[in-house]
Amino acid sequence: MLxxxxxxxxxxxPMAAQWxxxxxxxxxxxxxxxxxxxxxxxxxxxxxxxNYGYRFMRNFQLDGGVDAVFGAGGVRDYQDxxxxxxxxxxxxxxxxxxxxxxxxxxxxxxLLFGGGGFxxxxxxxxxxxxxxxxxxxxxxCTSRSGxxxxxxxxxxxxxxxSKLFRIGVNTxxxxxxxxxxxIAGVPGVETRDRWINVYGEFGIxx
Length: 206
Known about the structure:
By secondary structure, the chain is mainly beta. 8% of the residues lie in helices and 63% in strands. It has one helix at residues 2-17; strands at residues 23-36, 45-57, 60-70, 77-81, 84-105, 110-127, 143-158, 165-180, 191-205. Strands 1-2-3-5-6-7-8-9 form an eight-stranded antiparallel β-barrel. A hairpin with a 2-residue loop joins strand 2 and strand 3. The protein starts with a helix and ends with a strand. The model is unreliable at 4-16 (pLDDT under 50).
C-alpha cells in the first residue's frame, strides 16, 4: 500500500502544480482621470470596481464587471419634492467585457496580467431618493452613453498558499464615444472620451 501511495503521489504532483483557481471575484477602490474631449470639463474623482473573471486556462481569463465613478462632472443641483429639496448628482459607469493573458510567477502566487476588450460607458445624473419606498422621477436629469474599448494591466498577489485571498493593483484605460443629452458642461453632441482608472483590489479566488 505504501508503494502504491508513493506512485500515486508522484503521478499527482505535476497535476497539483498546474492547479489554478477558476473563479475570481475582486472589489477595487481607486480613482479615475478623464481625458480627450472630457478634459477640463470633467475632473478626477474616486471610484469603485467590481469584477468577475473565469480563468478557463492557466494563462487566460474571461472578464466582466462594473466600474463606477462618483461626481466627475461636479453636478450639485436640487429638485423640489414633497420631501423637500433632494440633491442631484452625477455618476459615470463603465461595463468592460473582455479577457486577459496571465503570467504566473513565484509558484503561481504572483500574477502579472494584461488584456482588453469592449466597454459600454454611461454618464448620468441621478436624484437622491428619500427611501426605498418613496421614489421620485427626475425630469431634469440628463444622461449620455456610448461604446468603446478598454485595455487593462496590473499585478495580483495571493496572500495564502491555497490561493484563496489576493491583493493587487490594476490600471484600465477606456476609449470610446458617447452621445446624448448635455451633462455637466459636456454638450449634447458626440464626444471622444478617454479615461484612466487606477484601482487597488482585494479578491477571492476558488
